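Morning - flavin-adenine dinucleotide inputs below, output right after.
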Amino acid sequence: MECDIVIIGAGPAGLAFASSLAKTGLSITLIDRQPLDAIAEPVYDGREIALTHHSQNILHDLGAWAYLPHDDIAPLQEARVLNGNSPFALSFDTGQTGAEALGCLVSNCHIRKALFRCIEGREKITLLAGQAIRSISHSQKHVAAELADGSYVTGKLLVGADSRFSWVRDQLGIAAEINRLGRGMLVARMQHEKPHGKIATEWFDHYQTVAMLPLRNNYSSAVVTLPIGEAEALMRLSEKQFSTEITQRYRHHLGNMELDGTRHLYPLATTWSHHFVSDRAALIGDAAVGMHPVTAHGFNLGLSGQRLLAEEVSSALRKGQDIGGARVLRAYEQAHRRAAASLYRGTNMLVRLFTDEAPPSRVMRHVALRVAQKMPLVRSSIRSMLMAR
Ligand SMILES: Cc1cc2nc3c(=O)[nH]c(=O)nc-3n(C[C@H](O)[C@H](O)[C@H](O)COP(=O)(O)OP(=O)(O)OC[C@H]3O[C@@H](n4cnc5c(N)ncnc54)[C@H](O)[C@@H]3O)c2cc1C
């Protein structure tokens, strides 16, 4: 099969990239190992994605926003960072920006479904679901993915959107920094007695991090980060024990809490690809940068990255240039690395500072929060990072 662009991975990044190019007339083939129904009707996976304003705009442009269930979009008015037993909270709100909210929370399964609907039925976009890939090869003008049945899909550009432990990245011979953190992030939707006031809290307690993300009505997404063994033990508790455990770990701030639905555990690893491109190929989404979820930037970054690449491809097409050529790839790599590097390093630094239990780090984070609260410039730059238009 021949096409212009081959995308491996039909997760949110791959689907967004395909729909960004849907109007260009380029023929696109998406390949994913998951069966079609898992891509078309993704089930709830516990992730509530905090979307920046910039991401909301991109989803609007793609047409995906209209497919989201609007009753399930939860506005985020304020974010608070708490440290250990200290009553002090560093807080961010919309300030003088005039915006109604810092951002909003949407379930990952709704985002994936909405992005799928954007490509569904498009004449020039083909989705090969439930397909394993055997190898990738390229010549001067083409790149080819060999499927498990021995057939080939060839294109002028191949895009790896196959997540942080990217098989495509390995096949392309691109090295990556991979940090397995030995910790797990457990996510679960909880119903609670007291209102959350649309305030998200990130509480770096001793030996655990607990975030509460405000959903609609008296529901929050509890995000608990622990050493992996402890997180697995929480997964094994009965629903009743689990509800009591989360209520206690959150020190009854929202009254009694009750588990609503399923729990999900994600072992934590961060990844940084040493290159985002190679001959006729590019990495997008988590395959390029696997962020720690604590600052809620993984999908946001992936969404803006795929847009950068789509703009370079569209511009080359308009000028009659090679859409998989070195100029396109270099421009994408430079722009995306510039945007991603400080977010990735900054997030990792924050995680180290706020999870290290050594006394100097405890003192340091206490000081860091106090200083940040007193410096309007620091707070407004963190606010603009949160709100990123
Ligand atoms: C608990 C949690 C909370 C998060 N919260 C936020 C948040 O608030 N804000 C935010 O911006 N981000 C958040 N993220 C990050 C966000 O979920 C990811 O950045 C995003 O899902 C990455 O999308 P992706 O398409 O790159 O990868 P994925 O979603 O992992 O999709 C990859 C796709 O590739 C396919 N695939 C993999 N390997 C192959 C192969 N060899 N062949 C064919 N197909 C393959 C898979 O089947 C899958 O469909 C969170 C993550 C977690 C774990």
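Note: The mean pLDDT is 91.

O.
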